[in-house]
Amino acid sequence: xxxxxxxxxxxxxxxxxADTAIACGSGDVxxxxxxxxxxxxEAAAVRAVASSLDSGRxxxxxxxxxxxxxxxxxxxxxxxxxxxxxxxGRRLTFRVVAHDSHGLVAAGRITRVIVxxxxxxxxxxxRPGADG
Length: 132
What we know:
- A hairpin with a 2-residue loop joins strand 4 and strand 5 (about 105-115).
- The chain is an alpha+beta fold.
- Strands 1-3-4-5-2 form a five-stranded antiparallel sheet.
- The protein has one domain (about 10-120): Thiol Ester Dehydrase, Chain A (Roll).
- It has three helices and five strands.
- It is globular, with a radius of gyration of 16 Å.
- The chain has helices at about 20-25, 35-50, 115-120, and strands at about 10-15, 55-70, 75-90, 90-100, 105-115.
């Protein structure tokens, strides 16, 4: 299969206590934490290309650039949409936008790199913690 710009996917989350800045350790207010929002954005990017990757291939995170410009309250739903904008060899760059019931929450770009899953895991050999 080929990976072409335009592939897209979304990921939704109803914000719970476990998703807050307090729970993530990134702040002391009970709103959606930026680390949780970033994880949701990465999930959307992964979904966008998952079915287009050759067997044995996956993507790994390389760069995230995101402005988290508005808070999302407990109980509200946030949706992140990721759209593949650019394919540069093994590097895939996605445009990501997040909205909740009040409007735009965040926007930015995520770059992920296509890797061979087995070789990637083998490359961990000798690194601390690599043996489980």
